Amino acid sequence: MEDDDLSPDAHAAGAASDGLRPDASTTPQLTSEDLLRVVVESLDDDKAEDIVTIDLRGRSEMGDFMVIASGRSTRQVAAIAEKLADRLKQDHGILSKMEGKETADWVLIDTGDVIVHVFRPEVRDFYQLEKMWMPSGAATRSAAAV
User: Does residue 121 form part of some domain?
Assistant: First the structure.
C-alpha cells in the first residue's frame, strides 16, 4: 500500500515512526479556515493568478472549501501544485493527494478539507468550475480580470 492511500488517522498513527511527519500529538491541527489561509498564501507566493475560494460547507461532503487558481503554463501549474503539496507536508504534516500533474493542464490537490484546482487559463475557461460551484447570484471573475 502506498503512503497516499492511508487514511488521515493512519497517517497520524505512523507519524512518529516514519520520520516524515511530526508526531500528531505535538502538531496542532489546522482548522479548515486555517488550512484555506495556508493554501491561498502558498498559491499567492508562487504567483498563481485569479485565485477564487468557494465555501462548500453545507453544500458538499467532499470538503469545506474549494480553491481555483491559474498558472500561466503547464510548467508553472505543475510547480505551483508541487510546492503546495510540499509546504503542506513539511510545515503542517498534511499529506495531500494529487492528480493531473503529469500533463499539468489541470492539477487537483485534495488536502481533505480544502480541494484545490490549478489550471492553465484555457482549460479553466473551458471547464468553468466557478460557474458550477459558486452560489447563485455570487460574483464571478470577469473576462476583463483574466
Answer: yes
Q: Is there a domain that residue 146 lies in? A: no
CA–CA separation, 95 and 85 (whole Å): 7
pTM of the model: 0.74
Phi and psi dihedrals of 135, rounded to 5? -60, 150
Provide the percentage of residues in the chain whose pLDDT is more than 70: 73
Range(s) of the domain holding residue 43: 31-135
**Torsion angle of the four alpha carbons 127, 4, 112, 122, in this order, in degrees rounded to the nearest 10:** -20
Q: How many domains does the chain have?
A: 1
The number of residues in the chain equals 146
Q: Is residue 18 included in any domain, yes or no?
A: no
* Integer Cα distance of 146 and 125 in angstroms: 10
pLDDT at 143 over 50: no
